[in-house]
């Protein structure tokens, strides 16, 4: 059975080109086209597609209509796959697209659409519940994540970084307190502040310690002197 596709693109020339590619592809059937968010949502209701291929920026606001439609589909028609086409490798848009899961989602740069196989492969992949992310977008996500981690660690006070460095050795609060000549209550307070600044407040305590240490080590820091460098849990 052919994969049913609805295409949304406000640029007439590009829409015609993409429609032709899809119509000529084996195993794909173009069942509808749209030029803005309202007409795209209506086309989905009318044609019940397996996959939506959409530009990110379309009328009426020309901001993130494609991402918003993907979110709407995730809630209302979770079985429908979405291929988002973008002019730029926007990490923020990619993260929004993948919110709620990566299954059945693809993010491609429009410049890649010139490679017909990339688009058709992405359509078939999301129809099967898989995900496809353009390599340039992946690089942007990695860079954004690295910047976020460094920014969060930079918010720690010198004492908090010292406590985290000893956490990286797998030391308990009592052991850290003894080494830094602090009360256990003070170490606990510093630890909770570290978790809050790293966005780990909703995690179980053991998970918070491990994730905090991973962020610390992956940012290029090293444990306090005497550590093996392994991510350990407190004993």
TrEMBL record:
<dbReference type="InterPro" id="IPR039420">
    <property type="entry name" value="WalR-like"/>
</dbReference>
<feature type="domain" description="Response regulatory">
    <location>
        <begin position="4"/>
        <end position="125"/>
    </location>
</feature>
<dbReference type="InterPro" id="IPR058245">
    <property type="entry name" value="NreC/VraR/RcsB-like_REC"/>
</dbReference>
<keyword id="KW-0804">Transcription</keyword>
<dbReference type="InterPro" id="IPR011006">
    <property type="entry name" value="CheY-like_superfamily"/>
</dbReference>
<dbReference type="Pfam" id="PF00196">
    <property type="entry name" value="GerE"/>
</dbReference>
<dbReference type="InterPro" id="IPR000792">
    <property type="entry name" value="Tscrpt_reg_LuxR_C"/>
</dbReference>
<dbReference type="InterPro" id="IPR016032">
    <property type="entry name" value="Sig_transdc_resp-reg_C-effctor"/>
</dbReference>
<feature type="modified residue" description="4-aspartylphosphate">
    <location>
        <position position="55"/>
    </location>
</feature>
<feature type="domain" description="HTH luxR-type">
    <location>
        <begin position="149"/>
        <end position="214"/>
    </location>
</feature>
<keyword id="KW-0597">Phosphoprotein</keyword>
<dbReference type="Pfam" id="PF00072">
    <property type="entry name" value="Response_reg"/>
</dbReference>
<dbReference type="GO" id="GO:0000160">
    <property type="term" value="P:phosphorelay signal transduction system"/>
</dbReference>
<keyword id="KW-0238">DNA-binding</keyword>
<dbReference type="GO" id="GO:0003677">
    <property type="term" value="F:DNA binding"/>
</dbReference>
<protein>
    <submittedName>
        <fullName>DNA-binding response regulator</fullName>
    </submittedName>
</protein>
<keyword id="KW-0805">Transcription regulation</keyword>
<dbReference type="InterPro" id="IPR001789">
    <property type="entry name" value="Sig_transdc_resp-reg_receiver"/>
</dbReference>
<dbReference type="GO" id="GO:0006355">
    <property type="term" value="P:regulation of DNA-templated transcription"/>
</dbReference>
